Amino acid sequence: MTFRPFRNVIVCHLVPGSEEKVGAVFGHYDQITRPQDLGVIGRTLLSHDDLYIHVLDRKQDPEVSGQRRGLPAFQQIAQEIGPFVTPYPRYWENPSHSVAKEFYRWVPDGDVPADRTLTVIIQRMKHDAESDIARVFSDSDAGRLPIETGVTGRWLYSIDDVFVHLLEEDKAKADAVRQNPESHRPASARTMNDLSPYLSPYGPDHWKTAKDSVANVFYRWKAEDWTPPADD
């Protein structure tokens, strides 16, 4: 089986326009420390409207490994990005409340292509709608649509009223589908329609198409000296 990292998703408020400053802080500490020694093998920082999204790739679930920190210099980083990154949830009391809750995942059986892309989609969600959203995606993922459109993994998270959708795709197949979107539009439209009672644009004032729900990557880091375990 192809190795898949365990992913944590952190969601906070972000001062718009501060992406370069925040990315520089992580770039500095990712170079002078070794996050991989704490089980972190990659990170992606994204922004969407006034949101900061931090996707952490780990070797193993922290519940199993016990390694919960993302960087040896956690306190220094928190202090330096503090003017730009602030808690999102209304119930926030400590840093653990910034970690989104995974409530659904789907991955196909067997190996997946090495050349995969990860898209992060952000929407607002109705309170306590996780089970309904999971049901809609489960019904869709049980059919042929995800395989035919190149989906190699899907993870859904919630935090307060924010819905985070990590969509992993076979790059070649997904690119081909985008060149001929009409071939799968009816099935995709049905799924979107079924989700409409529970999800809405995060920033409705400037939302025009589904692409406006995709978060923008402003920093990536990967542990170059770490290799996935060999397949069994």
TrEMBL record:
Pfam name, any one: Cyclase_polyket
InterPro entries: Dimeric_a/b-barrel, Polyketide_synth_cyclase, Polyketide_synth_cyclase_sf
Name of the protein described by the UniProt record: Polyketide synthesis cyclase
Species whose genome carries this gene: Microbacterium deminutum
